[in-house]
Amino acid sequence: MKVSKLIMTGAAAPLIMASHAFAADGDQAQNTAENQPTAVQEIIVTAQPVFRNRTDDVVPTLSYDLEYFQRFEPLTVGDALRRVPSVTFLSDVIESDGARLRGLDPGYTQILINGDRVPGAGVDRSFFVDRIPAELIERVEVVRAPSARRSGDAVAGAINIVLRDAYTLEGGYLRFGGLRFDDGRVVPTFGAVWGGEVGPGGRLLLGMNVQGRRNPKSKTSWRFDEPGGTLDNIELQSDIRDGMDYSFNAAYEQPLFGGALELSGAYVLTSRDEVENSYEYQDGVLTSPNLLTYNNQVEDISSTNWSTRARWEREMFGGESRIRLTHARYNDDISSVEAESEYLRDATPFPDEDRYTVDQELTDLDDRETGLRLEHERDLAPGLSMEFGVDLTWKERETLVQEADRIRFNVPNGGPRPAVPPLTGHAPVPGGDNTIEEDRVEPYVVLAGESGRLTWEAGVRLDQSEITITDRTAGTVTETDEDIILPSASLRFQLNETDRLIVSAGRTLRRPSFNHLSPALLEEEYGDDDFIGNPNLQAETAWGVDVGVERRLGRRGVMGLNVFYRSVEDLIEDVDTGAVGSGGAGTSVFSVDNVGDGSVWGVEFDLSTPLTVLDMENTGVFLNLSWLDSEITDFAGERRFNGQSDYVLSAGFTHDIPTWNMAFGATYYQQGDAFDRVATEEVYTSYGDNLDLFVERRFGRNFVLRLTGSNLLNASKDETFHKFDSIADQLARDYDEFELESEEAGPVWQLVARYAF
């Protein structure tokens, strides 16, 4: 990496030399007082519809302020994202964790907080957006195309979650209320935010939020020996997820050394229990004599997610220089205990028990990421500017997954169950004790210009990475490195007073999943077949283009149409190593390698406008409709990218009644079917429709009372599983099991009051 160090030093040189120019250029310092905070009453007690922002970014970007979502009182960023174009989820019912921009796997979508990468729980490097309470955000940006100014890990695009800063609010507000779930339980929600001047020239914002989280749902599974075959059993399951979120954020801005200093941080703690109770009946007969098993699984989850950031900027050297230091950390601490009672192992039916089994798995995940960004921007000529800099990233991800010794004993028919001994002998599972270190150096340069109706930018980014994988269960240390050039270009052309054309093209990448890099051998991971990771995997890369037109509708409305295409190379797919598996003859050892190519394309339409043309200025509507498609060839033939819905629709309206100080509205969300094919399993997934509504009453300029209802159509998630013992059986369609599964959750009602001061 000697070249990387040279590039890094060259990029930092202007900032180092500029440190001697503070006194000479002090009169050019940025005046942070030019930023004007918004009176809190204008945000909390909204008296008119709110629409998508029409941004002036050259790179196609859709921007939505918190007020766009707030009336529906979303609990998390994930809930809010169901009201923006092209975002789907394959989560459980009424959950929104891994955002799938344009329907692609979450690993293809880059999640940013304040423009910075953040670590997450997903082995595919994804960040669960339901870990960020919606109350923390200022706005959400959907960035459809790449730019050399940002990391290239965004094949599908990027979602930038912008948290409130010190200039967001003038004043404060309280938020308090409760949520009632379908099982009758009520949980609290409370929040407080304040922003104002602190000290000479400084501004401070403080916010905190506490909210109950609960997801009670029921699930039913029908299992057959093959499609159209004999019904083997039915399983009835209750699944309740119960917890609390605690969050805190702060931001401070202050003139310093002739420039502007910004300090900010956010902390989120999620404490959650997941309890599943399952009853399995033979031959589909739901009576006690036909009870096969009773399974109880309890997961105790504690997740912490925090990030800090320091940013300083100053005018110097005829331009503007910026330094940004970030540190983010994600930790998961999970205890999962599964206990199963088996019946009907002989002719004696329930309540006699034949076998009792207890398993425990402990997971400790610690992912840390530190970043340093140095950049300088200056004008080269009238209408022409240049920005250059470097991003440095140091990432360390430690994983420890342990299993206890299995407790299993037979229970005498008619006799008492013996006492269950303590769980002991915890030891790492194969591949479950590892450290992944990743160092990245990413220098970039961007030229930008404006001439008449045309605005453009073009740049290039060099992504250099070194990865060290220490797998303690396999006793191996592997080092790899990779350099990828990522060019990009965008232009915006003003066609007339209301219409503009936006065209973007560039190259992006997706890095390998962590679980694919571990060289540990996992026996019977794919049915009867084994799996071993490949630490030498290279990143997938994609060339893509976006072409869109956007029209301004009146003073506040906007309508857009965008067409996109991605050509993905070096796809990571399952491969047969040719080695015989641990099961002996007829079994194999599979791995993954860069062996495939694929294409993704679609059309995206969005509309957000008041109905002024119908003389309904106080009525706002929005409509987002995306048609999505793709093609890939895997070990079994052609398919779409796994989990990609063929369409996604969200639509809604808000209507204000000024004379009554009231408002109401509704949102409808629907996504198309999806298909997944991996080794030994294929899944078809479909979702039911989702309907949310709100009604609010304002009292003066400082108080609003709002009732919201979500999941009012009792949305269901239906899955069809085709399961096989091996890939050979999968290709021959020799079934191990065919399963139909359906889960459903009921409505959630929320009553919230907001008071501004």
From TrEMBL:
It is a multi-pass membrane protein. Keywords: Cell outer membrane, Membrane, Receptor, Signal, TonB box, Transmembrane, Transmembrane beta strand, Transport. Residues 409-436 are annotated as: Disordered. It comes from the Bacteria. Residues 1-23 form the signal peptide. Its main location: membrane. Residues 66-157 form the TonB-dependent receptor plug domain. It is found in: Cell outer membrane. Pfam families: Plug (PF07715), TonB_dep_Rec_b-barrel (PF00593). Residues 271-712 form the TonB-dependent receptor-like beta-barrel domain. Belongs to the TonB-dependent receptor family. PANTHER family: HEMOGLOBIN AND HEMOGLOBIN-HAPTOGLOBIN-BINDING PROTEIN 1-RELATED (PTHR30069:SF29), TONB-DEPENDENT OUTER MEMBRANE RECEPTOR (PTHR30069). This is TonB-dependent receptor. The lineage of its organism: Bacteria, Pseudomonadati, Pseudomonadota, Alphaproteobacteria, Caulobacterales.
